[in-house]
Amino acid sequence: MRRALLAALAALALVPGAALAQGHDHGAAAGGTEISIGFAAFDPPLVDVLRGEGVRWDNVSVRRHDVAAVDASFVSGVLGAGAGFARAFGASGDVAYYCRIHPFMRGDVVVHDLLVDAPREPAVPGRAFPLRGRTALPAGTPIAIEADEGGGFVPVATTTAGEDGTFAAHLRPHASVQLRAVSGSEASPPVQLLVLDRTVTATARSARGRSVVRVHVTPAGHGGMVVLQLRLRERFGWWPAAHAELDHHGHARLSLRTWRRVRARVVLTLADGATPLALSGPLRLGRG
Amino acid sequence: MAASAAAPARAATRHVWVAAVPVSWNIVPNGRDAIMGVRFDPSETVFGTVVYRRYSRGWKQPMRNVPRGSGDDDGMPGPLIRARVGDRIRVHFKNLDTRFGRSHSMHFHGVRYKPSSDGAYVPGFSGGDADVKPGKTWTYKLTALPSSVGAWPYHDHSPSMHESIDGGMWGMLSIRGRRERLPDREFVVVFSPMGRFQGIDGRAFVGNTPVFTAFPGQRVQWDVMAMGSEHHTFHVHGHRWLEHGTPVDTKTVGPAESFRIRWRERDPGTWLYHCHVETHMEQGMIGIYRVRRR
C-alpha cells in the first residue's frame, strides 16, 4: 500500500511559490491569528503561526484576565472585558503563556518557519490536488514535501519559497496521508489530506427556456463545489455556466436559461470552482 | 460612423452601488488556447483576487456589472457606469475585502470631482476616499461635463493599488452627450496583463475572453482602455471606423488611456478582435465578435 502511495506521489508536479505574479490565493487571515480569552480558557489553546506574524488575544468574557509568557518574555497587563492585546513573534519555537490572574488558564503559540495550508476539501484518487503553504524563509529556499501514511515521513516532492512567502506543489494522491513541508532542520506541523473516491450523479429537466439540474455527490458531508459546464462552440470547449455549493447531504441544484439544445456535464471541484475532482455523466439541456 | 441623436434629457443624479469583493478567478476557464492547441491546468490559471461588483441600493443584492448581451459578467471589468453630460453621479463604495484585509478605493478619469472624491492615496493629504478599509464605505461625488463625453477608466488608487490593479480592480465610465442615444450593444475591452498571460477583461485566448455579439443594423459601441505598463493596439477584423476623418481599423491605447468607437453593424460573421502587438496576442489578448443574422 505504501509503495503504491509513494509511486503515485512521485508524479508530483513542481510548482514554484508564485505560479502567478500576484500569488493572491492563500495566506494568514487578515490581521493575523486571533485567540479568544473566555471565562476560564484560551480558545484555541494552541495556535501555529509563521515567524514574524502577529497574534491577537481578545477578552470576550465578563471578567478580567491577562496574557503572560511563562518565560516572562512578555506580559499584556490587565485586560478588562472587550480589551485586546497583540504581539508578533520573531523566533521559531514554542511560547507557553498563561493568565496570571487565573493561572490554570494556559496556552501555547508555536512559531514555525513553514506552515502548510490545511486542505479544505478531500482529494480524489489519482487527480491533481494543489498543496499550498507559507514560509518565513527567503525566496528561492528549497522546500521538501513529505508524506506519511503510517510508516513515517518520506520526501515525495520539492519546491521553492516564492517571492511572496508562499510555496505550492501538486499531488496525485491515491490514499489519505499526512503531509508536511521541510527545509533543513525546520518542519511544518503535519496536515491531513483526506482522499475520497466521490461520484457525481446529475439529472436535468428543461422547460420554457430554463433548465434545472439536480446533483448528488457521494459520499456526502465533505463540502465541495459543483460547476455546470456547457459544451459551446463559441467557447471552444467546456464553459462554466453555473455553480453551487453542496449541502451537507451532498445535494445541489443548478438553474440557468437555455435558449437551445446543448450538451452539459457537472464537475465536482475544489473551492476554486476550477480544479476538477470528479465528473458526472453527459447531460442534454434545452428543448429537444 | 453612425450618428445617433435623441431629444436632450434633463440632468439626473445617478446612484451606483459598488463593492470590492473577493473572488476566485480563472483566467482560462475552458483550459485552452484553441488557436495554438495548448492546454492549461487550473493550477496555472486560477488565483484569488478582489474585483468591483455592482450591487442594488444599500449593497443588498449583487447585480450585473455589464448590460445583458454586452459581454461576460464575472467581475472584470467592474460595473459599466453610464451617465449623460450634466448628470451627477454618486458612487457608493463599500470594501468587502475580507480575504486579504486590504484598503481599497475608486479613482475616476474623465469627470469632475473635488479632492475628497479623488480616491487617490497621498500620505498626509488624502482622506477616507483613498483608504477605504475593510467594512467601511465612501461615496464618490462626480459630475459629467461636456468634456467628459467618451469612455474613461476607473481603478483602485488606494495603498494597495498595485496588487489591486494587477488583480483586476478596474472598470469604465461611459459618458454620452445630451443628445446621444444609448447604443444597442456596448462592449467593454480592458487590455491588462494577468500574471504570465495578457488578458482582455481578465481572460486569455478565444472563447475565454468575452464573446461579443450583435445583429446587423444595431448601433454598437466599443469602450477600450489599457491598464498596466504596456501599450496595446486595438484591432477588429472586417470593420473600419473614422479617426479624424480617416478610416482606420487599428488604434493604439497606452496605460490608463481610453477611447470609444461606434458604428452601425452591417457585416455578419464571426470576427476576431485583439491586440495586434504580436506577443500580447500570443499570450491571450484575442477574442471573437459574432454578428448574427436575426
Structure explained in plain terms:
With 288 residues, chain A is mostly beta strands. Chain A folds into three domains: 2-26 and 117-193, Immunoglobulin-like, CATH 2.60.40; 33-112, Cupredoxins -  blue copper proteins (Immunoglobulin-like, Sandwich); 199-285, SOR catalytic domain (Immunoglobulin-like), CATH 2.60.40. Chain A has one helix and 25 strands. Chain A has one helix spanning 2-9; strands at 13-15, 33-37, 42-43, 46-50, 54-59, 68-69, 84-88, 93-98, 106-112, 114-116, 129-135, 142-148, 154-160, 166-171, 177-183, 186-187, 191-193, 199-207, 210-218, 225-232, 237-245, 251-257, 262-269, 276-279, 283-285. In chain A, strands 12, 13, 15, 16 and 17 form a five-stranded antiparallel beta sheet that branches. The termini of chain A are far apart. By secondary structure, chain B is mainly β. Chain B has one domain (13-291): Cupredoxins -  blue copper proteins (Immunoglobulin-like, Sandwich), CATH 2.60.40. Helices cover 5% and strands 41% of the residues of chain B. Chain B is built from three helices and 21 strands. In chain B, the strands form six sheets. A five-stranded mixed beta sheet of chain B has the order 13-21-20-15-18. A four-stranded mixed beta sheet of chain B has the order 4-1-6-8. In chain B, a hairpin with a 2-residue loop joins strand 11 (185-194) and strand 12. The longest helix of chain B has 7 residues, at 161-167. Chain B is globular. The mean pLDDT of chain B is 94.
Short description:
With 288 residues, chain A is mostly beta strands. Chain A has one helix at 2-9, and strands at residues 13-15, 33-37, 42-43, 46-50, 54-59, 68-69, 84-88, 93-98, 106-112, 114-116, 129-135, 142-148, 154-160, 166-171, 177-183, 186-187, 191-193, 199-207, 210-218, 225-232, 237-245, 251-257, 262-269, 276-279, 283-285. Chain A starts with a helix and ends with a strand.
Q: Using the CA coordinates, give the radius of gyration of chain A.
A: 23 Å
CATH topology of chain B: Immunoglobulin-like
The CATH superfamily label of chain B reads Cupredoxins -  blue copper proteins
Could you give a short account of the major beta sheet of chain A?
Answer: 5 strands, antiparallel
Strand content of chain A: over 45%
The tally of helices of chain B reads: 3
User: Largest sheet of chain B, order of strands side by side?
Assistant: 13-21-20-15-18
The number of distinct β-strands of chain B equals: 21
Instruction: Say how many strands of chain A there are.
Output: 25
**Rg from alpha-carbon coordinates of chain B:** 19 Å
Helix/strand/pairing category of chain A: mainly beta
Structural category of chain B is mainly beta
The CATH superfamily title of the largest domain in chain A = Immunoglobulins
What is the CA-CA span between the terminal residues of chain A? 49 Å
Mean pLDDT rating of chain A: 85
CATH fold descriptor of the largest domain in chain A:
Immunoglobulin-like
